Amino acid sequence: MKKRHLVPVLLLVVFLSFLFFMKDINGARLEHELIYVAVEIENGDNLWDLAMEYNDTDYYTNNEYIDMIAEINNIHPDRITSGTTLIIPFIEKE
Question: Distance between CA atoms of 23 and 25, rounded to whole angstroms?
Fold first, then answer.
């Protein structure tokens, strides 16, 4: 499979898995819908700044949100690399 086809497939798999399995800390289904975007990491980016930009609700603390990003992308929160693409969840405001 060509590399450029891998990202859309990965996005679809991640989206579908969270659609069916995402639960809050009490184990109940989430009452809000998460939307996912792909963000290319640039030099100087960090997960705290991404959390400040995309986590603009009261559902998650920034630390919980950073842990969620790390889990979705299978990375350590302190180790992101410029040029990589991360899947970032956010709650669409109505």
Answer: 7
Nearest-angstrom CA–CA distance, 50 and 84: 14
Residue 26 CA to residue 3 CA, distance in Å, equals 38
Instruction: State phi, psi for 13 to the nearest 5 degrees.
Output: -65, -45
pLDDT digits (tens, 9 = 90+) for 22-40: 544 445 445 567 889 999 9
Here the tokens at position 38 are: 């792909």
Do 46 and 63 contact (CB within 8 A), yes or no?
A: no
Q: What is the DSSP string of 44-75?
A: T--HHHHHHHH--SSSS-HHHHHHHHHHHHT-
Spatial neighbors of 7 by CB under 8 A, at least 6 apart, are 38, 85
Structural domains of the chain ordered from first start: 3-91 (3.10.350.10)
